[in-house]
UniProtKB/TrEMBL annotation:
PANTHER family: LARGE, MULTIFUNCTIONAL SECRETED PROTEIN, LARGE, MULTIFUNCTIONAL SECRETED PROTEIN-RELATED. The keyword Transport does not apply. This is C-type cytochrome. It comes from the Bacteria. It comes from Aquirufa avitistagni. Residues 1-19 form the signal peptide. InterPro entries: 6-blade_b-propeller_TolB-like, ARM-like, ARM-type_fold, Cyt_c-like_dom, Cyt_c-like_dom_sf, DUF7133, Galactose-bd-like_sf, Quinoprot_gluc/sorb_DH_b-prop. Gene3D superfamilies: Cytochrome c-like domain (1.10.760.10), Galactose-binding domain-like (2.60.120.260), Leucine-rich Repeat Variant (1.25.10.10), TolB, C-terminal domain (2.120.10.30).
Amino acid sequence: MKKLATWCLLGTMSMSLLTSFHVDHTSINSADSLRLPAGVDPNDENWKGIDLSPKNPIQPLSVEEEAKRFQLPPGYKIQPVLTEPAIQQPGEIVFDGNGRMYVLELRSYMLDADSKNELEPISVISRWEDKNNDGVYETGTTFVDKLIFPRFVLPYGKDAVLTMESDTDNIYKYTDTNGDGKADKKELFTTKYGRSGNVEHQQAFLFYGMDNWLYSTVNAFRIRETPNGIIREKTGANRAQWGITQDDNGKLWFQGGASGVPSHFQFPIQYGNYDVPNELAKGFEVPWGAAVKVADMQGGMDEIRQPDGSLNRVTGSAGNDIYRGDRLPASLRGQLFYGEPVARIVRQINPVVKDGLTTLHNVFQDQKTEFLKSTDPLFRPVDMATAPDGTMYIVDMYHGIIQEGQWTPKDSYLRLKIDQYQLDKVVGLGRIWRVTYEGQERDKKPVRMYDEKSATLVTYLNHPNGWWQDMAQQVLVLRKDKSVVPALKQMALKGSTMNGRIHALWTLEGLGALTAPTVQQLVSDANPRMRIQALKASETLYKAGDKSFAATYQKSMLEADPEVAMQAIFSAKFVKVPELAEHVKASIEKHPTGGVKLVGDQTITPPKPRQNGPFNATELSKDQKEILARGELVFAELCSQCHGNDGMGKSMGNNKLLAPALAGSFRIQSHPEYAVRVLLHGLDGVVDGKNYAGGMMQPMKEQSDQWIADVVSYIRNGLSNDASFVTAQQVAAIRAKTSKQASMYKYEALMKVVPQEFPADAAWKFTASNTVSTRVGGNASPRSATNYEGWSTGITQAKDMWYQIEFPQPYTLSEFHFTSTSNFKRPPKPTPGVAPTMIATYPRLMHVETSVDGVNWNTHVANWKGKEGDNMVSFDQVKTKYLRLKLGESLTKVADEIPWSMRQVKIYGLK
């Protein structure tokens, strides 16, 4: 059924536009002109030319007046179907099997500039009906109340919905058992589904797919209800935040958030991720909103098209819908629509498919306009839906602030605009609109699927409106009525419409009534669309034990139709057919270009995982591999929205990035405290002298120590970086040390408190009690067993051995890093066929001492235990000219010829 979109919270390091004022209002803010924050350079491109003089405070327009501000293509009209005060701050709509409209009302969202009480239990899910069939939803109830920022709503059977709240892990099913329009029964549906943290970064949208699985944004898995409970399977990373929809073939289209563009749409998400170049047509990321003449983009003046004051680069997106109705022009069927509430537009996208690969085109790009836009700066399109009446509905939050409070700190550009226009005063509103077309009346047939016989529902699979098809399938599957299996089989094999045949096939699959003979017959169907669907459905039978479909996949890979061949590769890979590579190679030979080659090549040789530093994966421990896997998943789900899939930063055009590049970053590879502090407390403003379109990185201190350690470890060891792993214990220590940090960091201030590496130079003097080499390795030292710069005692380590560095002047130090790895231990007389053993050369027990004169020493760390691999010794900051490491008594009896060795020595402190 139709996607379950939600609000436009614009994502990691997002760029939000705040609403402004109507110039025709006469109420004047009597406050003096606002001033730039202290320390801001007025010539900075993000501040230069900003007007902070008193302005008319924003005033909401009436529904009738707002309607006049819309701009649509000729022939289209827009009319309200449900507005405030009946609803407040709608973020999502969805229809159940009886045509009733559920509204997700996010009543706690941004009630002031600091998002105070955002997690108060005041949000609701309301349900509305148009009982007199006049096109207006006049009758409603609060179906579920006292919710804490709910993530989605999905009708799931008669008088029941699925939803979950923020900062929780469970999805619940709410049911109205007595018919009063309010849920009175709450049941656990599934757990291990959510995450905590900023409301913009948690999962959203629960979508019932044509394949009878439930999908959400963020989460790289899908779930499904079975007689034996809820099951789940891994999927690719959808990198989405605020939208899921599906087309007539059941392919899911995911919508990004901060990226402002669709995030995953090329291939079905269950088959994983593929690298596809040039998915967006040239100019796609340029919005063409109305000339509202307000310069209130979070990225500053650089993000504004002059002189009209509109957004010049997409920065946030919310909600999406593949229009599949029958009461708007046929040219809209299969077109993708989504909202950009920063630009105040609804965009129409034409997906162009060539050789199995899709490129997205803005339909109105050449005219420099959009499908729908408004001169009312309060218009906030956050969701859209193909409705039961065949038209398209648009959810307008109509809200003063469209950016979560962690991005609106005091003295920020955004906060100045809020104060200037009193934007925080516009709350508690919301409108839902219907888009119609001249000469095409909406469908007035009442929807009563829950009350109709199953045989009648089967006929709806042929309905010209895709919403009816989706809902009829869902109701039949949840009803578990197998009396219609013969009719479904007949429709799948010989139905009158292709969409009806496809839905009949998947309804059979959902009822557990799909058989191999039926699928095999459909694999040979004359229509390639049906052959593709049959291959997809066969995966269920293969997983259940019918391995005969392996030969079917191999045969289909050689089909002339490239999309059928691609699906055969997808299916064979998904169910892990043996000897896959040889058959894929044959398919590539038949299709040496386009999608088959791309999918085939990346199936045989998957894109190389982002480099995990100098170590091969086989050299990592099991725990380290698990840390990287968890961190990479979070990065793909969340961080890539702004930092790019490869960590190079999301390009916004004009040589500007949405966020700093992490790949090969000296900041990331330097002291781990930098990245940990940024994740805990956020980062705002210019970074190392550069402006970024996103403006800021939000705090994530709500996440666990292990979560932050996983992410930091991944970006330090992946994305072409080469640095140490970070432990949950390190994060906990930094969290405790920085507990009084109340605001986001500014880069220059952060660099003053994060330990910096003191690079060794010729002025440093190295001495040791036992010396093989006293050279300090540094970052460039190769990590191999036989070729490195470093130091070793050369003999068995023993008490009071020491290693000392004298600096040219006193430094304020706090950490000493080094690497100790195993060396070969060769027997006096090599024995043929006997490999030399490896001995661990880390210090068994060590003290850290400092001195200002080289004579009098103070111990800062006593009895520190070394380990193989990376070692980090931390101590309270001390100003010293000498640093000495000294061995203590060994904890265990040291076997003979186990020296103490170190390489890649690094010294950290405050400069």
